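PT: before anyone asks, these are the final sequences, not the draft ones from last week. 960 residues across everything. Please model them as a single complex and drop the result in this thread when it's through.
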Amino acid sequence: MAVSSVGSSTAGEQTRRSSRPSLWSRLRRNTLAVIGLVIVVVIVAIAVAAPILPLQDPNLTEPANRLIRPFSEGHLLGTDQLGRDILSRLVWGARVSLAVGIAATLIAAIIGSTIGLIAAFFGKLVDQVLMRGIDMLMAFPYLLLALAIVAALGPGLLNALLAIAVVNIPFFARSVRGTTLNLVQREFVEAARISGQSDRKIILSEILPNVLPVIIITMSTTVGWMILETAGLSFLGLGAQPPQADLGSMLGDGRNLIINAPHVSVVPGVLILVLVIGINLLGDGLRDALDPRLASGALTRPVACTDVARAEAGPADRTDALLTITNLHTQFHVGDQIYRAVNGVDFSVARGDSLGIVGESGSGKSVTAMSILGLVPTPPGKITEGRIDFDGRDLLDLSLHDLQDIRGSRIAYIFQDPLTTLNPLMRSGEQIAESLKRHQGLSARDARRRAVELLDEVGLPDPPAKALAYPHELSGGQRQRVVIAMALANEPDLIIADEPTTALDVTTQARVLELLNELRRKTGAALIFITHDLGVVQELCERVLVMYAGRIVEQGPVSEVFGRPRHPYTERLIACVPVLGQPDRAVDAIPGLPPPVNRLPDGCAFAPRCSLAIDACRQGEIELRIVDQHHAARCIRADEVGHG
Amino acid sequence: MLAYILKRLVLTIPVLFGISIIVFLVISLIPGDPATAILGAYATPENVEKLNRELGLDQPLPVQYVSWLTGVLQGDLGTSYSLNRPVVDEVFERFGPTIILAGTALGLCAIFGLAAGVASAIRQYGWTDKIITVVVLVGISTPSFFLGIMLILWFSVRRGWFPTGGMYPLFGTGSIWELLYHLTLPALALAVVATGVVARLTRSNMLEVLRQDYVRTARAKGMREPAVIGRHAFLNALVNIIPIIGIQAGFVLGGAVYIESVFQWPGIGRMLVQAISTRDILLVQGGVLVVAASFVLINLATDVLQVMLDPRLRRT
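LR: through. Structure below.
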């Protein structure tokens, strides 16, 4: 699809230019991660420095000074039920909690990663046995297994640590195994094997460095829980035993005093909360920085309708055409880059007309078509200029509500891949019926009956059964027939078909096209057919537009444009088509690539690839000019095309 | 569909066996002589000898396991030494309250987690999204035992809106209203973390699904946004979220241990903590076994639910 190729053609260059920023600089740009880092660093620093800080003895009891409130003189955070200084106990407790949490994480990481590495590297029976064991551990509610272990070993901080480490092993084993499985099939591992390196050496020097990011991500996402859970066990009295105290046991000791002295439990509780928030913020940041695919912010979802941000609509082109597009500009704003996917397009379609739009991927043909009903994804898409008049109304001016009444009813789309365009969870008949109910107000029963009729009209065998089938139960050709039935359901005035047969095999393609053409003629709907297949246009369409870098470079009746192209690009496109029965015909691809639409050159966008280009081609604005009655080309040397 | 459920049911049998093995092996983790550990240092040699015979501890491990499992399958989980009653009776008496508490929390986390996640996704980058994201982050990081104490402090001690603990009033009528009154705070405290996790993953799944071609198709058909979001996007996202809710069941069942202790809820979690303090290993074994088995069944249920929703998974 055009949108993705617009993005990807330049994304590659950008990454090369900035040459993959370091982990630190990526992390630094993430404000939340920096906050997390600061919290963690401050708490860890204080905990580490506990012995040299001017703190009172955390275990010194002063019964006379019991339960002093916070912010009292001499005891900043007050004292507990035995008159011990809470600030001092907090710092020493945090030290214990951190040490225990980190130790448990390291143990779980080492054992779990080893299991994952071995399982994936040796595969087969080893993998089976190890991973079934891991599955067994996962079958337990996390904390209960830890409790069972503590029950057997007896309460105590060390036992709690071990128990929490054991129940976290599966998380490491699973993620490391998954990554390693991908690695062992790669060439460099194969090369190391062939060169006779020992298994141990391959695992340690070839594989381990590559799984390290996964291990670090898993550590950063589990260390917070492990601190929480060990604190929890201490809270229940199953972890740290007096006189030793961690944050959990402080909270546990204080909970009976909640009525008279809430600060005894609130203070350690808040510290646990803040510490874990810090760790989670940092963990999320690390994950996003190490594995950008997982970054939650990377996914943007398109809203219901493309943004229209145009200064003024411009005058309506008063014609009796069904659809008139005037000076359409559709752009993608990504960061500070502006991709001009559609850069000033004008054309019109009369009732019953059939228009083909051709061009390479990225030429803006799909974006043009999707702009009509506001289906260009926003963000990042935006219609910045122009108007789209349909049957006397400017579609860009309509409210979403009114636009939705036209979508699927007066204008229908047929998209490229019928597998992904159908909802996998809905029966095919239901997906057609839904549209009938929406636009014609049919009852559920009538809609279902009509859906079966439509499936019959598009030539599916046994329509009642096919109406009950889910998309995955149909073949590619059958699915596209369902999509066509869906498009025809409300007898639209205009059908926009966006490469409807590209995903199908050749024989199916021909039959689907034939069907589409036949039904269109029968209903009298106009057709906009987008494709890169010139042969199909020749068969299906009366007129054709050729698009390049977001603009129309040539337009006219199919016979004229293909018979005597007047733009060098069209000429080259035609030369690219292999002809059946002429195996010796030179099929030469057009050298070079289309210009990135965020950095369009001056003058003709095709000039860098054009053998006819002269200096005048590279400057100013080159008009689309009439070359013959209904035939226009955007080329100053149009008259020479095809002669030289 | 039925065939799938049956097949899936058969597949849970080895998992249940695996669980029974791990629970059984817990006893062999006990350092030193298990009988002494169970009965305490002051046990008479005769009692130690008797327990050893009862548990079959003088036999090799596999033999011990078979005889233990035979007992379990006949509903014999041994005798609790601290309570002096059959473990089975105690476990099942405590199981009901835990199911009520954990079930309510799971229901809350599903409802609020899904709602927050969907709201966050469809308002991506808006204020709703930002606020929900921050709340979720704090929620995920909250120690439930601390939250429980705070809820008691704010709503029970200071305002007296809710009781500080227990499941029914001492001299109450045992009505559902009394139960709900006592259930509110513990269920909330237990649900918070799971709600955060569900909300987070619902958001990212919704964002993923909203970019799919079939959502564009639904919009191209002219469907109104509520139908696009609800029928087309949400249901597809739900397919991936259901197993996550199943996993949360495990965290909620585990977290119930804290919450039951804080709110003196008479469930299996509190029983386990007491049993560990009194080193009543058989009671711990029985409790863990029953809760783990119920977790397996919950996962089975979520699998079935997922398959009911997604016809593609029915191909076996």
